[in-house]
Amino acid sequence: MNGANRWVIVLGWLSLLGLAIEGVLVFGITASDSRMGFSQKIMYLHVPSIWVTYLAFFVVFVCSIGYLWKRTPGFDRVAQSSAEVGVVFCAMGLLTGAIWGRPTWGTYWVWDARLTTTLLLLLLYVGYVLLRAFTPPGEKQARLAAVIGIVGALDIPLIHLSVQWWRTLHQPSSVFKVGAEGLPKASMPTEFLVALLLGLLVMTLFYAYLLLLRMRVGRSEEALASRLAGE
Question: Considering the entire predicted model, what is its pTM?
Answer without folding.
Answer: 0.89
